[in-house]
Amino acid sequence: MKTSVKVSLGGVIAALSLVLMLLCSVIPFGTFAFPAFAGILLTVIVINLGYGWAFAVYFVTAVLSFLLVTDKEAALYYTAFFGFYPILKSLIERLRSKVVQYVIKYVIFNVCMIAAFLIGTFLLSVPKESFNLFGVYLPGVFLAIGNVFFIIYDLCVTRLVTLYLLKWHNRLNKNTKL
Questions:
Q1: How far is CA 135 from CA 118, 129, 146, in A?
Q2: Per DSSP, what are the bridge partners of residue 137?
Q3: 3-state helix, strand and coil shares in percent for the chain, rounded to the nearest 5
């Protein structure tokens, strides 16, 4: 495959991911959704170009998100989890045991979300007391709810990859000679 085709595909996916990240500034409730969608686009790079190109596109999108996106929390969540998870997902799913796969996925999700929270709290200097509401520590509640949504997210990524492979992959290869 020609390098120009690889660079073009990587650039298009990076641009689409960045547009999704920029939408976080326009639609405030997209702080979690748009980074998740932007990360899913990287599966096209993994399938067609491999892991090295996928991590390069992830890195470019992460850096540009921090530079251009006004919603820094969204950029943080993309960088800390949603950007690289679809790439790691395909590596994790090579393991034979489904139980081990899910344990690894949940450990990665929880470690990344806790790290993103701590980094955000440290960088934004938000006092931890402000996260209590009627004696309930909200980040713990959000993490618990996030674990439930992670099940749905993981399933959606799998289904979207399957749909891509069945419907669009051959068309893309035929039209671009990938």
A1: 20, 10, 20
A2: 132
A3: 85, 0, 15
